[in-house]
Structures are given as structure tokens and as C-alpha cells.
């Protein structure tokens, strides 16, 4: 529930900060759900380099370089993961306040 602190606060900077924190408390869970779905989709869309043969001792010495869409998807996955970690840390800090 968003509580407007402007009626009770005398320090307007503190009131504005508390209002921002309340808004972030509402947004962060939804943001984390969206990022989790995006990370899952990005990981599932990536091509697996290791086939089933390498799982049972087969030779997987072929070198594969990511190019084009595959590289973009790889970088996007890393960005989504970094954003998820940052949002988790921010959510922890917000819960303490």
C-alpha cells in the first residue's frame, strides 16, 4: 500500500525519498518476475554446444565461435542476469528501510 508522507513529514526531501521507496516496494517484485522470465527464455533459446555424445565421453573438441544472433542472445542473457542480481540487491536494501 502506498502511503503519502507529505501530510505528516516536515522535511520534504525525506518525504520524497520515503515515497520513492514505497513505489519501489510495489514495482520490484513485478520487475524481478519479468527478468526471471526473460532470463529463462534467453537461456532456452540458446543453442547447446555440447551434444549428448559428449555427456557420455564422446569427443567435443570442435571450436565454436558465437556470431550474429547467437552472440546477441548470449550478451542479452548476461545483461538480464546482471539486472536481476542488481534488482535483488536493491530489493534487499528496500526491505531493510
- Determine Rg (CA atoms, Å): 22 Å
Beta percentage is under 5%
> Tell me about the biggest sheet?
none
Please give the count of helices.
3
Termini separation comes to: 15 Å
Outline type:
rod-shaped
Along the chain, the helix and strand elements come as HHH
Residue-averaged pLDDT:
81
Number of domains: 1
> What is the total tally of β strands?
0
Report the structural category: mainly alpha
Low confidence ranges:
none
Helix content: 55-70%
How is the topology of this model organized?
Elements: H1 12-45, H2 52-55, H3 69-96
Helix pairs in contact: 1-3
Characterise this structure.
With 97 residues, this protein is mainly alpha-helical. It has one domain (12-48, 64-96). It is built from three helices and no strands. The chain has helices at 12-45, 52-55, 69-96. The two termini are 15 Å apart.
Task: Summarize this entry quickly.
It is built from three helices and no strands. By secondary structure, the chain is mainly alpha-helical. It has one domain.
Properties at a glance:
97 residues; mainly alpha
Amino acid at each position: 500500500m502506498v502511503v503519502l508522507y507529505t501530510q505528516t513529514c516536515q522535511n520534504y526531501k525525506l518525504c520524497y525519498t520515503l515515497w520513492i521507496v514505497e513505489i519501489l516496494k510495489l514495482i520490484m517484485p513485478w520487475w524481478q518476475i519479468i527478468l526471471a522470465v526473460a532470463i529463462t527464455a534467453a537461456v532456452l533459446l540458446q543453442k547447446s554446444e555440447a551434444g549428448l555424445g559428449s555427456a557420455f565421453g564422446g569427443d567435443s573438441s570442435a571450436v565454436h565461435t558465437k556470431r550474429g544472433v547467437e552472440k546477441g542472445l548470449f550478451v542479452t542473457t548476461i545483461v538480464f542476469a546482471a539486472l536481476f542480481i542488481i534488482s535483488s540487491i536493491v530489493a534487499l536494501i528496500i526491505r531493510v528501510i
